[in-house]
Amino acid sequence: MMKRYGTGWFLAGGALARTGDETAGPALLLAGFALTGSPATASLLLAALAVPAVLGGPLLGVLLDRAPRPGRLLAACLLLYALGLALAAAGAGRVPTVVTLACAAAAGLFAPALAGGWSAQLPYVTDPGGLPAATARDAATFHLASLAGPALTGALAAWTFPSAPAALAVTLLLLAVPVAWWLPAPGGRAGADAGAGTGRRAPDGRSGAAGLRAGLRLTSRDPRLRGATATSVLSCAAQGMLAACAAPLGERVLGGAARGVALLAAVALAALAANAVLARCPLPVAPGALLRWTALVQGAALLLAATCRPGPVAAAALLAGVGEGPQLSALFAVRHRVAPARLRAQLFTVGASLKTTAFAAGAALAGQLAGAALPAGLSAAAVLHLLAAAVPGDRVGRSRPGVRRAADSPGRGRGR
């Protein structure tokens, strides 16, 4: 048993789980192709792992919000994700394809727990005054995972055997299980206000369906959550378009498709560095405003990339990361401040599901555009970011009448 569960344990567990998740997709793709010899089957396996998150996110969110010990449920999700992934990787080419796809889809149902479900527990392991910095560090684990996962997959596949990356993904997921299991129960460190975004969670006697409806209503009716969700989903679709354009961009501009994939690593590295700076020196900007400004930065980066010249493309990758990292931190800050504790996990997991779907849709659209005209695909992605920057939304730092939250008070937090 962990004698004292601090933010360090939380971040380490999140980094392990998310690196396992980022390794899982490419690992399953490589294992499927190597064992079946069919690119179509391999891509179906990847899709089967990603698409079920749309269903799993809302359901897991309701269950996490209602669980007296959400960490135990998160641990179970990690175990089931690891089991489904292991069965899918082991069965590729050995059992009927439909069985392998079913195993991958079953694993994908639990993926939102690694993203939104884990982040929703952050207020229970840190003090309200330290929440802004902890949020930036939590967001940084996503970028660390997106940098490490594909790199580990490529290295293992090149130097060992095709199923080794899948085994690594399963191992990383299992290593995160005990960290999830000992997550503190809600209400341990947070304040006493049951309705505040960082407060103690009040019991919810409603049915699961009623809880789900309440979460969706809050997302659609609260202008702060609605604006943050719309901005992040549009930006995530644009990020999917950039990912789809990376290989052809590298081939046509940088001298090789592999160099284009390296651009994505550069984006992740810049995002990680930007979040590290943000954790130490928070910007004096409301999270809602920061969301929109960072979308604007990413839009400018993709317009720069659309020139299809080596120097501007390299600069665009770094600029895109500088916008992407703080944008994720700002999104988490919006949810932590606005969401009632009884609905927080649901809002995080629903948001993760929507972003996963938007990323996949953006990648599919850009794949078609990039084949015909690469600058058109990149320009379309830039337009999505600019639309995201134009989404209206109230300042999240503004409290509701009669409610003054510790996280929103002037002079609190790191350097504010």
Structure notes:
It is a single chain. The protein has 416 residues and is an all-alpha fold. The chain is built from 15 helices and no strands. Helix 1 (7-36) runs antiparallel to helix 6. Mean pLDDT is 79; it is low at 189-208 and 395-416.
Question: What structural keywords apply?
Answer:
416 residues
Which descriptor suits the 3D outline? globular
- Whole-number mean pLDDT: 79
Report helical residue fraction: over 70%
The largest pleated sheet is described as: none
- The separation of the N and C termini measures 36 Å
- Beta strands, count: 0
Give the SSE string: HHHHHHHHHHHHHHH
Number of alpha- plus pi-helical segments: 15
Runs in which pLDDT lies below 50 for 5 or more consecutive residues are 189-208, 395-416
Radius of gyration: 20 Å
What structural class do helix, strand and pairing data support?
A: mainly alpha
* Percent of residues in β-strands: under 5%
Summarize the topology.
Blueprint: H1 7-36, H2 39-50, H3 53-66, H4 70-91, H5 97-108, H6 111-119, H7 131-159, H8 164-181, H9 208-221, H10 223-254, H11 257-280, H12 287-305, H13 310-338, H14 344-372, H15 374-389
Helix pairs in contact: 1-2, 1-4, 1-6, 1-7, 1-8, 2-5, 3-4, 3-6, 3-9, 3-14, 4-5, 4-6, 4-8, 6-14, 7-8, 7-11, 7-13, 9-10, 10-11, 10-12, 10-13, 10-14, 10-15, 11-13, 12-13, 12-15, 14-15
Give a brief description.
74% of the residues lie in helices and 0% in strands. The protein is an all-alpha fold and 416 residues long. The longest helix has 32 residues, at 223-254.
